User: Fold these one by one.
Assistant:
Number 1:
Amino acid sequence: MTLSMQGLAKSFKQGDTQLKILEDLELNLQDGEIVAVIGESGSGKSTLLSLLAGFETPDKGSMSWNGDVTREWDEKRWSEFRKRSLGFVFQNYHLIPYLTAVENVGLPLRLTGVAGEEANAAGEKLLRQLGLAQRADHLPNQMSGGESQRVAIARALVHKPSLVLADEPTGSLDARTGQTVLDLLFTLLTELKQTALIVTHSAEVAARCHRVLTLRQGKLWPS
Ligand SMILES: Nc1ncnc2c1ncn2[C@@H]1O[C@H](COP(=O)(O)OP(=O)(O)OP(=O)(O)O)[C@@H](O)[C@H]1O
Ligand SMILES: [Mg+2]
């Protein structure tokens, strides 16, 4: 899947002032490209991912997925896009609190009509690959931060989306677990020729990506 952003701007209103976060931002991703986004805390990385997923609306500029201009999308088109084509790893995981790990992971499949048993089997397989076979029946509040993060990664990959947006996917993992997770993540991304934008503070994650962009002063800069 290709992605293009042109002249993109986003600001937030804070009392009487407008906080300009993104300004005249440009981004072009080729099909199958895996790109890292780095930048200081508060520079707008999560905001950028929110715009790409349609959770936030840009103030200005245009954005297109596979040449399809998203300004013309209604909420129904956006949710179809998220359901079929998008895997999103939230910075704070956003697991559904009343679903077990395996149910959380299987959810994207259930949403596209896959039967429970098949969704659970796919979920269990990914959880096993991420070292969480013993946690499949745990609820989110019965898991550590790093375990929750791996569940969130599995949920973003289970339906083999053509696009993966990941916000600090290894931020809560120790070095060894991080390695295992990165190996699987990059193997899957490459095998499935998925396009991916990965926000990270880790030099190791960035080094594995095809390109690294830095978000600074509202724009993306090559590094
Ligand atoms: N809904 C909102 N309302 C007001 N301000 C917001 C909102 N969302 C984000 N911001 C502000 O926008 C700026 C960018 O936030 P964002 O979460 O995108 O940063 P980030 O680069 O992801 O930072 P971090 O590395 O800490 O996760 C921050 O200063 C934040 O306070
Ligand atoms: Mg963030």
Number 2:
Amino acid sequence: MAPPIDPTLLAALDEALSADRLERDVPLAPMTTFRIGGPADLLYRARTPDELAVAVGTARELGIPHHLIGVGANILVADAGVRGLVIRNEVAGVEWLDDRTVRVGAGVEVFPDLIVETVDRGRGGLHHFVGIPSTVGGALWQNLHFLSPDRSRTCFIEEVTLGAEILAQEGDRRRVGVEYFAFGYDDSILHHRDDVVLTADFRLDPAPVEELRAVMRENLRWRDDRHPDLWLYPSAGSIFQKIEGVGAGRLIDECGLKGHVHGRAGIFHRHANIVVNLGGASAAEVRHLIDLARETVLRETGYDLRTEIGFLGDFDAPPTG
Ligand SMILES: Cc1cc2nc3c(=O)[nH]c(=O)nc-3n(C[C@H](O)[C@H](O)[C@H](O)COP(=O)(O)OP(=O)(O)OC[C@H]3O[C@@H](n4cnc5c(N)ncnc54)[C@H](O)[C@@H]3O)c2cc1C
């Protein structure tokens, strides 16, 4: 288990971030879509690009362990919580640079906020991602994606991204173009470098509002048929990446694990690549199902599944509280 933060470093962090804004011992479960996980030693909510840059920069300078989260839609937090500083990216702001280009704070939620704003103006491109929980920063980290309206291809957020302002791992703030992100499937430069997105620019196509809304309605219906309702079954979406074009859910299903329950967590009965919190599940129970699915699929099919979600905190430490 990581040692507590040195009081001198803590005082320096308090001073840099304004003492009253640094929260202690904050439960992280409500900040994740799984609704699972212990507390953060320290939590800071960054609301502007400057605040986010200062928080990350100061933690780096002081050598304080830190983790950036958005709406926690792609992470599992350990029952023991997270030592050090968790920075919640709540950077707000939506500014139209011209009638097709919008500059957005990295903490703005793609759905509903940004999609509602852009669709109301008759601008399309982000509407494909209706119903997916994500901040703008998380969406660029992930290269957010969903099927095209005719289901023949996948639409990626990369396609409407112009560029961003980042805090680079070297410490400087810079503007980068879309090519900087080296987007792939479930992948971008943000998986490989310690850069932080502060704002992002999207270029959107004019389209009739009713057409955009029709696609959104159809996508929501499609998701509703296959995916668990987050309010009934909290989850983090797909657990494993697609592997050589083969869906992880199909492999897990073929191994007979669809609907398998462990404690208060379960492999969703309609989509085997999703683990759901059946009510009061622990991170250890979810982790058990993930390990079980991976080991069973490897043994029975030879495919070695890789997780898409991130794990935050120490999964070997005893739970707090
Ligand atoms: C019900 C459900 C359905 C989903 N469906 C889909 C889907 O159809 N398609 C799809 O692509 N994904 C899907 N997902 C996955 C999830 O929505 C995405 O991974 C999303 O982009 C995560 O965003 P977040 O803000 O929650 O990031 P978090 O989960 O909080 O963090 C994820 C990672 O992003 C990093 N990050 C966050 N902000 C920044 C920033 N400003 N700069 C750099 N790094 C940052 C974090 O450090 C972390 O490593 C689904 C998830 C759920 C729960």
